[in-house]
Amino acid sequence: MTRTRLRPLARFTTVCVTKTLAPLNLRAAIVWALGTLLLASCFLSPKLVGTRPTTLDEARVELEACALNANRLSDPSREVLAVFDLCTLYDEDPRAALRELHARAVAEPQRRTLFALAEGSYLLGRRMRDREAYLAAAVYAYLYLLGDEVEVPNPYDRRFRWAAELYNDGLLRALLDRKARIELVEGVRALPTGSLELHLDPAALWTPAAFRFEPADLLTIYGLRLRLRDSGLGVPLIATRLQKPAPDEHAYVAARVAPVTAFLRIEGGLEQLASGLHARLELHSGYDAERVDVAGREVPLETERSAALARGLDDSALWRFSIAGLFGGERPERSNRLILAQPYARGRVPVVFVHGTASSPAYWAELFNTLWSDPLLRRSTQMWFFQYATGNPILYSAAELRDALRATVAELDPAGTDEALRRMVLIGHSQGGLLVRLLVSHGDMTWLEELSGRTLDQLALAPDEDALLRRCLEFEPLEYVQRVVFVSTPHRGSFISARWYSRLLGKLISFPSDVVNLGASLLQRQASLLSGALPEDHSSIAGMAPDSQLVKRLKRTPLAPGVSAHSVISIGAADPGDPRALATADDGVVAYASAHLEGVASEDLIPSAHSCQSHPLTIQAIRRILREHLAVRP
């Protein structure tokens, strides 16, 4: 048996008790023993309150612990429950405790009580998977943040930040059905205390019948460097149009996916909750609304735009078009189109992006995502994208872009009163830059003789062929355009286009039937078409060769007076500060000497390969140029 050593105080007590008990009777001995033990306990009992060392990380976790991140109430809410002696009741019957706390809040309105109701309802919803409890959390959080019954909340209070999250997450979980889909249904919702009569905003553009809604928070995005989000109140949603517009319905095509924020507006206060509180669920466009007015107070909206952009780019057809659009240009009515990334907004300047060869509008995603996060650009511009079959002749594609822009402006603003539409900015990458240049240049039938070696009378073409030639060669600078940006544009041709394999590639490209017919007629007359040096090659690839007749003509063609031009040029690994290095620099497709233009308003050099649209310096340069454009008031 192990012998146990008694501590000195214990041994002393044992000796004293043994010697003292002998002469006493039993009752007195018991009383004396109890007194001795009580005295000893004063020395032996542990501390009930004290401190212990901790780390900053542990302390932060303890301070931030609440129903949002732990299965417990925060200390401020537990304090409120303790004041009303409701801690035990909440643990045993949280609904009954919330009803009692609600009654106390009605009798004596205080912000801290509203917060405890919001957090207590949220924790109930979390533990019981109760959508109505989550909805109650959003209601109480709204009243804490925006209610006018009690004092204005302190925005530096930790509870203020938590209340915003309780509102947002509570509303989101209240709208989710069992399959994690957003359910927008009007009607009465029973809450742990009282009920809420929910109405959908009749003025909402994003009606449930026309769109499918999904929560942005349930999507992980990839391929974008930044996931950009505006902080505020509301639930970020992604709206997808259920029906595609007919191809010939408009001169343009609107994007099918858009960012939306759901905002629950409470109409009334705590006292109305028992008899049925009214609330309106509003759906605000992420393109337009950055804040809402609540009783004269501006409230920022929580908006997620990056997820909506990435969701729209889930459509694989946009990515397949890169190659399909190079080789399959025979149906321009399906390939060539103007895509409006957002609904037309009067008073906003159109910024039109034109992609390059074997590309598509999807390759502007990184740049678009970052520009979209700039509040000034978001409020003052609307971004459009031109998609076109990049193998077709350059002059033909430029005519398609010119006609699409004119038709779109005429449809959106038939009275011609929106001055912002007449301050358009065009941004073109690679071949797209050549299309942009043709829209701010003058062309006439003298081009024909230079390009084909024949006059129009000598060619004796059919009427439809004559009309096609005039459409491609007779043009004035587009009156809507005030500024252009050339990104890695081969103004003097691309050395890649001159190589034998590029010529071979050009022979594999399909063209529209009217282009094919015109090419055949010109070939019979020993005249080249609108693009290359070889009569039988109609492709844009031939048109971008340094020795093509089109490139030679563009060298001598000035830009329209009054149009501001900027160059953003990728230079590979060359040193931008070394003039000798720049003289021989290229990006793998276009030489610096070809992309450089004298007399532009600015020239930015990008240490990148040819596809530099996503480079941070490219994005920074274009953002600066757009801000400069907006700063110039007409």
Compact summary:
This protein has 634 residues and is α/β, with parallel strands linked by helices. The chain has two domains: 62-308, no CATH class; 315-631, Rossmann fold (3-Layer(aba) Sandwich). Helices cover 42% and strands 16% of the residues.
What tags apply to this protein structure?
634 residues, alpha/beta, Rossmann fold, 2 domains, eight-stranded mixed sheet, six-stranded mixed sheet, 27 helices, elongated, disordered N terminus
Description of the structure:
The protein is elongated, with a radius of gyration of 36 Å. The strands form 4 sheets. An 8-stranded mixed β-sheet has the order 6-12-14-13-15-16-17-18, with helices on both faces. The chain has a 6-stranded mixed β-sheet with strand order 1-2-8-7-5-3. The chain has a two-stranded antiparallel sheet with strand order 4-11. A hairpin with a 4-residue loop joins β1 and β2. The longest helix is centred in the N-terminal third of the chain and has 19 residues. The protein contains 27 helices and 18 strands. The termini are far apart. The N terminus is likely disordered. The chain has 2 domains: 247 residues, no CATH class; 317 residues, Alpha/Beta hydrolase fold, catalytic domain (Rossmann fold). The chain has 634 residues and is of the alpha/beta class.
